[in-house]
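Suppose you are handed a protein chain with no further information: no name, no annotation, nothing but its sequence. What can you learn? This example shows the usual starting point.
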Amino acid sequence: LFYIATISISLAVFNLIPIAPLDCSKILAAILPDRAYAKFMRLERYSYIILLVLMVSGIFDEPLSFLVNNVAYGLNFVARLPFELIF
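A reasonable first move is to predict its three-dimensional structure. Written in structure tokens, the prediction is:
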């Protein structure tokens, strides 16, 4: 169960990167002004290459692991809270 939760949290945090094939790019595109949206759409054709380079180079390793660890810690705290209040 711990590994499944860790994988789910990792995928959720990774999906929040605002690069075009990921979901957060759609949210970012919805809130951008028209001029910025046009520039963002021009970069979309290169987004897979950008994402691949960032993943292979290891630039995402530390920020993503920091976010995943903190989200997992927060969820663990919230999940344990009712049991600590009762016992």
